[in-house]
Amino acid sequence: MKKNNLLLLVFCIILIAECVAQREQIQGAISNKTDVEGIHVMNLTSRYNTITGVHGNFSIAVKEQDTLLFSSVNYVPKKVAISAEIIEKSILIVILDELVNELDEVVLGPNLTGNLESDLKSIKTKKQINFYDVGIPGFRGEPEEKIVPLFVAAFPTQVDLEALYKHIGGYYKKLKIRRKWEGQNNTVAKVINYYTSAFFEEAYNIPEDRLYDFLLFCMETSLLERDFKKENYVLVLNIFEEKGIEYTKRLQETKTKEKE
């Protein structure tokens, strides 16, 4: 009996791993000129979801025939079907239509008394719209998915099959990468908002079109993210000074090679 259960477990693990492996990570971007940060991107097939970064970029796992939903308070919700061509290129560029919100007309009846409190109570308005009405996948009170450690998932006395499948199939690994990527994007947006693009160009000769790349470089090679969150701004400026010299030197070398 135990042998049969073990064989069934192994078969299920292999099956789940194959299903998970079919999805591939693609990179994408919203090509609108404004309001491209914080747009929700949901895979309606797998229920994976993410949000766009400060420049409208995103990364999400998909497979052929999946459907992605793009939604934001500033744009009309849009669905995109994933084709074999999109998966082959691993790139998806999306243009969204702006959402024009028109306020419902409020008609005041003839029975006004002049008493503001009583008149307000007598005015009838339509039900207030919420994010469900416009197709935005808003927060419904469920906590962030917890990543179960492998040794806990495979504990002999109580096996967590779902967590074990997610470890073997690479789901948890991709989830960690996505959360790190989203965290870095949020930090980059806050840094730019705090210091402004002009500051980096004047102080460190970082062009505006290279600023996002420069800040990611700083976070990958220093403790910028930690120091900025702890408001250690002296250390943050020291990082900018050191990495600014290194980055501009590399940028210049790249331009020289391109000319050659």
What can you see in these coordinates?
With 260 residues, this protein is an alpha+beta fold. 47% of the residues lie in helices and 14% in strands. It has ten helices and seven strands. The chain has helices at residues 2-21, 84-89, 116-122, 150-153, 161-169, 171-195, 197-204, 211-221, 224-229, 233-259, and strands spanning 24-30, 40-43, 49-51, 57-62, 67-72, 75-81, 91-94. Strands 3-2-5-6 form a four-stranded antiparallel beta sheet, with no helix packed on it. A three-stranded mixed beta sheet has the order 4-1-7. Helix 6 (171-195) crosses helix 8.
| Percent of residues in beta strands | 5-15%
| Helical segment count | 10
In terms of per-residue confidence, which ranges show pLDDT below 50 for 5 or more consecutive residues? none
- Secondary structure: helix percent: 40-55%
- The structural class is alpha+beta
Number of strands: 7
Report the sheet with the most strands, covering strand number, pairing sense and barrel closure: 4 strands, antiparallel
**Average pLDDT taken over every residue:** 75
Distance between the termini: 71 Å
Shape: globular
What is the helix/strand order?
HEEEEEEHEHHHHHHHH
In which order are the strands of the major sheet placed? 3-2-5-6
Radius of gyration: 25 Å
